[in-house]
Amino acid sequence: MSKVILHIGTHKTGTTTIQDTFALNRNLLSGKGLVFPEIGKTNGQHGLVMDWIKLPEAYHLDTTAQAAWTKLVREHARSDRTVLISTEELSRGNPNSRVDMRKLRDMLSEFDEVKVVCFLRNQISFLQSIYLQVVKSGVNIHWGNFFEGAASSKMATGLFLDYNDLKDYLETAFSPEEIFFFSYEREARESHGIIGRMMTECGLPQFAGALKDLPAGNSNVSPDPLGTWVVAHVLGGKPFKSWLLETARVALDDIGKDGMKTTIFTKDEYQRLKDVFGPLNRQFQDRNGGVEIGDFPKEDNVVFRDSLTPAYWVQLSRRLVDKI
């Protein structure tokens, strides 16, 4: 039987780590009947959505996405192989820039089995990670506008925050039996983490421990949240500087926050997201037979944005003067 697995993210749930790990182990996996195809210039097969979504140049293919999908079907749909496609761009929800799921499902109809795998993260951690990724990429974004837009529209940079909407979108083309949701937080704590879950979904759980680890550890790890906000505030749209992030974090340590986790949210923003998305998450879980979305992070021993006192800014200024 032929099978195609679509790993669709979501964003900031270890997707780059999954893609880099499976690319590193491509030959080993091929010997076990699992194909992780080389498509485009990146380890994730992001170019497969370029007919629907405007992508960075690095993701572009030399052909159309439809031609690339057709080639995949022709080469593997009449085999006993499993094909894994991994791109978080498949889970984008902007109505004006998202994949036509019905057309995609139709293109995959020659495979004997189709499976959609999606990791979900609690919205507080998810929204924060989205913001950090945008700022790290050099885009100047106003946090207040970003937060208000996300809380009211339940989307951020075109990504679903209400997972009921994501489920509805997928079910326009795929049957509920073809869609598998997992809690990112829960899977990350399990043996072999999210890689282990992906290997299980690919039918190879016994080989999870045989995969080579990435030399530098997990890929695309988010920086310190509050430190990143401080850096974005200080730079005012100028290119991101890693040394300034380190200085911002050290200044927190100077005022007695050594080793404490930070968050970009104020306490009121934190509570607002819990009030908005808590009921929606329970609705989603009821619709999916109890599939869990990770708990919101605990507020203990966390430095909130409204915890930054004048003493912090004075200490940061002193650290910056020392750099001059």
From TrEMBL:
It holds the Pfam family Sulfotransfer_1. InterPro entries: P-loop_NTPase, Sulfotransferase_dom. Residues 5-205 form the Sulfotransferase domain. Keywords: Plasmid. One of its GO terms (molecular function) is sulfotransferase activity. This is Sulfotransferase domain-containing protein. It comes from Paracoccus yeei.
